[in-house]
Design a protein that fits this description.
heterodimer; A: 119 residues; mainly beta; four-stranded antiparallel β-sheet; 11 strands; 50% strand; B: 107 residues; globular
């Protein structure tokens, strides 16, 4: 079974750093893009960026460029989303999702990781 | 960035109704358009890719159409499990962008 399993909920203070993870299983992790999507409380979906673990090709939305870092460790089939200095406005649910190459959209989603940033 | 505009933002419908949701791109995206369903407290679920192709396991009551800038998601006969929020997304060019969502509620 193809799965993306995300790390657990996080509660952090403003200014702290954080890395959340997304582990893929049941497929060739290197051969599919992994994207990250933010959903702020009560709001819609926002595309943050995407990485191809096979060669670490990474693209960011301008809205998130410089605010987060997307990376992947293909040796352990895991993608990451990282912040160096969290803000209260980073409070949200974060989803990872797999995207096949070609004319294919994101097809398998992780369960989501809740990040709460509060003093 | 390509802007994706969905309409309506919400609708009320009855079980058995045929429902149509529209999505318009601010510039042509060929058929690089996906639809997702999200229920409260759950991760999104992929329904359609390439504007009209059903993801594996998605029932045929869902259908998509369109090309260029105008797209449609149709649910042929609304069932209780279909009450949710639906999002379109373009993946023609970076950054991939989502529409604002359409909430389908019970009348």
């Amino acid at each position: 079974e193809v799965q993306l399993v995300q790390s657990g909920a996080e509660v952090k203070k403003p200014g702290e750093s954080l890395r959340i993870s997304c582990e893929g299983s049941g497929y060739s992790f290197n051969s599919y893009w992994i994207g990250w999507v933010r959903q702020m409380p009560g709001k819609g979906l926002e595309w943050m960026g995407i990485i191809y673990p096979g060669d670490s090709d990474t693209r960011y939305s301008p809205s998130f460029q410089g605010q987060v870092t997307i990376s992947a460790d293909k040796s352990i089939n895991t993608a990451y989303l990282q912040w160096n200095s969290l803000k209260a406005s980073d409070t949200a649910m974060y989803y990872c999702a797999r995207r096949p190459t070609g004319n294919n959209a994101m097809d398998v989603w992780g369960q989501g990781t809740t990040v709460t940033v509060s003093s | 960035d390509i802007q994706m505009t969905q309409s309506p933002s919400s609708l009320s419908a009855s079980v058995g109704d045929r429902v149509t949701i529209s999505c318009r791109a601010s510039q042509g995206i060929s058929n690089y358009l996906a639809w997702f369903q999200q229920k409260p407290g759950k991760a999104p679920k992929s329904l359609i890719y390439a504007a009209s192709s059903l993801q594996s396991g998605v029932p045929s009551k869902f259908s998509g159409s369109g090309s260029g800038t105008d797209f449609t998601l149709t649910i042929s006969s609304l069932q209780p499990e279909d009450f949710a929020t639906y999002y379109c997304q373009q993946y023609n060019s970076y950054p991939f962008t989502f529409g604002g969502g359409t909430k389908v509620e019970i009348k």
